[in-house]
Amino acid sequence: MDPPQHTKSRGMVAHAFSREAVEAMRPSIQRKANELVDEMLRKGSPVDLHEELSMKLPFKVIYEMLGIPAADHAWLSDNVAVRSSGSSTAKDAAAAAEDLVQYMDRLVRSKMQNPGDDLISDLVNKQLRPGHISHEELIQTAFLLLVAGNATVATQIDLGVMTLLAHPDQLAEMKADPERLVPMAVEEICRYHTGSSFALRRVAKEDTRIDGQDIKAGEGVIALNQSANRDEAVFPDPDRFDIHRNPNPELGFGYGTHVCIAEWLARAEMQEALAALFRRMPDLRLAVPESQIQFSDPNRDVGVAALPVTW
Ligand code: HEM
Questions:
Q1: What Pfam families would the database entry show (predicted)?
Q2: Residue 43 counted as domain residue
């Protein structure tokens, strides 16, 4: 989507994801992260960190923001997982997406009857009722916010934990000074792993030349932020994981007009997950050898299917 339509759609929800709005939500994100770690402790080791923390935290946060009733959480999480998983068949993924769109349709209608203190009710009152957007546009926006940010955040938490465990000296420093070093570790995780590496897809509108490469009008381009994040002209020794990098102008959330709308939310979720985890489980470690962890298909965004941990 391009401006001006993009500007309008993005402008409707941008306030809810601003840095200030996210800071106001931080205590609630922190509480959710702590509760999930408590639950892991209660279950006892080994536990699948991917399932119990990395996936559950972003879902809990977006459900609260969108005002989704608790009774629907489990069903929705399952459907989002089927829609987004590389191992689902195209037919199952399409059916799950259709079910989610229908759910959002029902949710928008119910918010029209009984508005609450949530983003969808806000959009109903300020955008739908005055006729600035259609019912369909609102459904699409709510659907996008529901599905966009769960696997990406989960992957960055999973890979971040694995990478910190593989760098015990840096992990020890982070545990000793979490206030300063957790945010720096999160930036480095976003640089080093680049969660959404195929997201920046574009079509050239006119013939152009970038760095000696001709691109013709109509050709597709992937601006590979994963490659930019390993640019040795910007990041000295780019293949080294280093939580002390400063400055660290990583491009894990993209750049420009379409830069991730939820970049501050995603950072806060990752920060609170890592802080809660290593504070409550100082001896956290993998419960299986790293070679047994299953990574997703290499031509998709890298992620893990499960991350068994012990403490
Ligand atoms: C670590 C987690 C995340 C990463 C690495 C990530 C990455 C990205 C990237 C690279 C883009 C730019 C795409 C482009 O230029 O075409 C993007 C856009 C977007 N992201 Fe995220 N994202 C994350 C979390 C989230 C979350 C939690 C949400 C929602 C709750 C979200 C919602 C969106 C939306 C709606 C866009 C489209 C923005 C636009 O086109 O104006 N993302 N994200």
A1: p450
A2: yes
